Amino acid sequence: MLYDPTERRIRSFVTRAGRLSPAQARAIETLGPQFCIPYEKAPCDFAQSFGRSAPTILEIGFGMGDTTAKIAAGMPDKDFIGVEVHTPGVGSLLKLIGEQGLTNLHLIQHDAVEVITNMIAPESLAGVHVFFPDPWHKARHNKRRLIQPAFVKLLVSRIAPGGYLHCATDWQDYAEQMLEVLSAEPALQNTAEAYAPRPEYRPVTKFENRGLRLGHGVWDLVFAKR
Q: Which molecular function terms from Gene Ontology are attached (predicted)?
């Protein structure tokens, strides 16, 4: 049984005010009406939103949006929906959308669990990206981590057969938890023996490059829906 987001639950994010730059504010004002999809408790019609029918990929927590914009630019035959709660990140990605002339990327500023529950129809996604979610590295906070059995089951219900779930983290113990949780979901099949090589479509971020230079690991997990 999928859990109801209206019930009391532990959130995997903390809403931060953050400073909104003039350029981000301008992007929200000028591009938001065209590229932001308002949250509502009704399934989103992807074809109507994008003006075409194409495989749709959902990204959860896109941060400042650099990676999301690069992936969307590299896959013009696919449509992307990015979900993020923090306003500066939304403004930053909207600015990139405008600068790069991206037409295959739309945003929803809202809690991802509620978006997936209420706005994403069953088996409507070609893929889901969850890149570097908050690791909540203190043991007492591990329960706040996004990748948990109930959430994965919800995600899988929205992915079409043959679609995929791609997670990435730079925290080894979170990678181990992800591998355990995803491997335990009967509707998913690992595409690798354990951790997958980084797919070419996922660019290496500046933060990731810095970590790699310091000897930190990065783990990708790519599971296909049966």
A: tRNA (guanine(46)-N7)-methyltransferase activity
185 annotated ligand-binding residue: no
Is 138 assigned a ligand-binding role in the annotation?
yes
Cα(52)–Cα(50) distance, integer angstroms? 5
Taking the model in full, what pTM does it have? 0.91
- Catalytic residue positions? 134
Q: At what angle do helices 149-158 and 112-119 cross, to 10 degrees?
A: 40
Select the CATH number that applies to the domain covering 22-39+48-225 from these four: 3.40.50.150, 3.20.20.140, 1.10.10.60, 3.40.50.300. 3.40.50.150
109-141 tens-digit pLDDT: 999 999 999 999 999 999 999 999 999 878 775
The amino acid present at 205, given as its one-letter code, is T
> What CA–CA distances, in Å, run from 195 to 22, 99, 212?
41, 35, 17
